[in-house]
């Protein structure tokens, strides 16, 4: 991993800002370093008094206006990582806060351009469990990751998503101030879904001990890769629009099998008719590949007449 801090900019970061009053403008830009600033004068403009923000927004369809952000939720991109409705009393909040503080303290170890470009972050498990604040808030981090990997990895992903979003928002505010733009508008930042990938996880599990009771658990294996399949696309979450209230939810698709939500997550609605939004930012796809590994055995571990075990 490149441990050099390249700068506070991001290779594919995007932000938009607009005013809620008359004469609003919008801008978006890409940057890698603080020294490179988009020419905001080319994209800002004046509007007549008859052109209200509502008329500006009405030119877009609900799908194009759909963002990964929800202004009522303090955690940016919550819907990207969790299908349940946000609640302040959720047991996941404490984990997200612990991981967010960890990434904030160790952000100098990561290349933020690379995180956003690849849509993933490599997390050293040994560094994680050595962090005192993480161990205080999550006493049994190893068991949490082993027994509930999807939720734990999603908490890590949302935590780094939050860190990157805050950094982009701060950078956008600085650019606005440097260009002399008003800061009384609302800044929207879209960061892609970030997959947390943990390495150096312990303990190692021997291939011969992998049984059905490990299904759905997070384990570490060591072996030789003997075969890989072609890379295929896999849709892990699909965005669905409720026909009754217009709420958009990110519905998980286990193993990529298409299925419809049973009800709307909004308690006051509970609608049962949905439309799939395949181009929504809340629809998550990933590259999928099957790997076959063969166990490593020393000479004293070899059993006569038996070939090494393999697993996909």
From TrEMBL:
GO terms for MF: ATP binding; DNA binding; DNA helicase activity; hydrolase activity
Predominant location: nucleus
Class of this enzyme: hydrolase
Recorded catalytic activity of this chain's protein: ATP + H2O = ADP + phosphate + H(+)
Residue numbers spanned by region Disordered: 1-63
UniProt xrefs under PANTHER family: DNA HELICASE MCM8, DNA REPLICATION LICENSING FACTOR MCM FAMILY MEMBER
Protein name, UniProt field: DNA helicase MCM8
Organism: Macaca mulatta
